[in-house]
Amino acid sequence: AKDKGRNTYAIYDSVIEHKAQARLKLVNQLHEAQEQGRFEMFYQPRYDAQGHMVGAEALMRWQQQDGDYLKPKTFIELLEDTGLIVSVSWQLFRHACEQFKSLMERHKNISLSFNVSARLLEHPEFLSRLKYILDEYKFPYDRLELELTEQTLIQDVTNSQFILNQLTAWGINVSIDDFGTGYSSLSYLKNFPVHALKIDKSFIRDMNEDKDDLELIKTMILMGQNLNITTVAEGVENPAQLQQLVAMGCDQFQGYLFSHPISFTQLETQIESLFDI
Ligand code: C2E
Ligand code: CA
Ligand code: CA
Ligand code: CA
Question: Any idea where the EAL domain is (predicted)?
């Protein structure tokens, strides 16, 4: 029995070792990708209730050797755990600013949304780096939106509040991403200057089958209206969802119904076409 136990441990150990090796390999690949600039931005358009494109959310992609693009699901956690997210984010932010600068001069209603992870927000140089890059590209502050999750904001409330106040003083917009999924109290909305709420796609997904989700969405939209905060529905996939959301007074929409995340070149060709709502 003793031997058998030892054997089990040996197998168990080798499984762990295998996992650790796979992880290490991926970490190396992520470093390499960062050095070679293989992370890229795709953009998913956002529309208002009249069907005009009002902006786009930058979403990270990792281009593989075969040309395919990998979504962040499989690697974002490791980027965050290793802290690599900080350098990758700045690299991509710079690139997005460069691309959007001239686009925004031609299209006055378009703004850029960028996801900020906790690691980036808590970085001591977050504000100064951000400002430096924006000024370098003469990027208009009021046409940048930073998306932060409730989870990120409540990790260090004092720091978050300080940073959000500064961002707001500069005219940069802040939105709450995945809204409704954090279990934090809503009172923070009073303390944080928030420009938009992005209603999480899990609510939108089931809204036409699940009465509870519909009621929750209604409440979130009403709350936005009362607090004078723009409401954005993410993950809108079909016309029935869109119709309901428009009827409930939701302000803006994003999802596969309108467009998948696309390359910058594709975004440019799509920017002026009106979505028929
Ligand atoms: P997120 O910020 O909530 O982004 C929305 C995700 O939903 C994107 O996945 C997008 O492709 C997907 N999506 C858009 N429309 C639909 C739809 O109609 N239906 C469904 N089912 N999904 C839809 P993606 O690009 O794989 O990104 C996943 C997450 O990775 C993002 O969630 C965000 O948390 C993170 N992420 C992506 N890019 C960045 C980045 O540059 N920096 C940071 N810190 N995080 C990023
Ligand atoms: Ca987001
Ligand atoms: Ca989201
Ligand atoms: Ca999400």
Answer: 23-275
235 lines ligand 1 (CB under 6 A): yes
Digit-coded pLDDT (tens) for 4-57: 566 677 777 888 888 899 999 999 999 999 999 999 999 999 999 999 999 999
Does 262 score more than 70 pLDDT?
yes
DSSP annotation of 262 reads B
Does residue 178 have its Cβ closer than 6 Å to ligand 1?
yes
pLDDT at 110 over 90: yes
Query: Does residue 2 carry a pLDDT above 90?
Result: no
Q: Is 228 helix (H, G, I), strand (E, B) or coil?
A: coil
What residue owns the CA closest to ligand 1's atom 11?
Answer: 261
Q: What DSSP designation does 42 have? A: E
Average pLDDT over residues 155-168: 95
Give residue 54's Cα distance to chain centre: 16
DSSP 192: S
The residue among 218, 154, 147 whose CA lies nearest residue 177 is: 147
Q: How far is the CA of 8 from the centre of ligand 4 (A)?
A: 38
Give me Rg for the CA atoms of the chain. 21
177 lines ligand 1 (CB under 6 A): yes
**Contact present, 174 and 167 (Cβ < 8 Å):** yes
Q: Is 212 left (phi over 0), alpha (psi -120 to 50) or beta?
A: alpha
Q: What is the C-alpha to C-alpha distance for residues 72 and 78, in angstroms, rounded to an integer?
A: 10
Quick one: tokens of 124?
A: 């001591």
255 Cβ below 6 A of ligand 1: yes
Handedness of CA 215, 216, 219, 220 (dihedral sign): negative
pLDDT in tens, 201-210: 999 999 999 9
d(C-alpha 242, C-alpha 257), whole Å: 9
